[in-house]
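Q: Got one fold?
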Amino acid sequence: MQATALEYKHRYLVHGLIYTLCFAAPWSKLLPPPYRQSVWGFMQNGSIWFQLSNTLSRPTYARFAFFWNSTIIAMILLASAGAFLRVWGAAYLGATTVQRGGMVSERIVADGPFRYVRNPLYLGTILHTLALSLLMRPEAAVLCVVLITLLQLRLIGREEPYLQERLGSAYTAYLQEVPRIIPEVRPFTAPNMTKPVWKQGLLSELYMVGVAITLATVGWSGGYGWEGAILRVMQGILISLGLSVVARAFIPKATF
């Protein structure tokens, strides 16, 4: 299961298209009126997730804010874990390597998160997707997680044979020692003494960091209600995306 060369080169665009499709949920217009809302309909009626929370907020149960804020806590944890993994991994790989359109086979990186899992950046993307999925319609959330996970596996399927062919037995040994996508609590391989460049990691993953910060700072219902919280979160996501596009101008261009 390998991504095509075009798919790999434009992988960020493919991610964006999947997220946009699942947030918009255009198929919802074909459903009966009570179930037609996409994420944009949150401002009026909310998703099924929050309709459920609203039901549980009746006087017999706890207040709605508790359920909304509990959801936000889950989103913060998932988004923060995803951002941490991606920044940590990018600090060892370098922003140029992470953002380039093609693959690189200069060396084996077996430091930092790469001692625990072979693909920490892709795992970080899956965790980030799980966080965003809680803002989507339930069926759109499932579709988004499935599509993004399949995309990560396709990207891995293209990278690993390429690296194995060019790096030989050393990379084969690394494949045998370190798990592909599910990390363990202990490191599987000895470090190569590569030094992380945290500035490069943050620059490369400004969007992921921005989303985690947005959820942690403006996602709470507070005095604005959950509609205002969702609006602020969506604005923060778009601002983070815009800042990440600007930040790419400061990432050194590949010379080969």
Observations:
- The CA atoms of residues 25 and 38 lie 5 Å apart.
- The two ends are 27 Å apart (CA to CA).
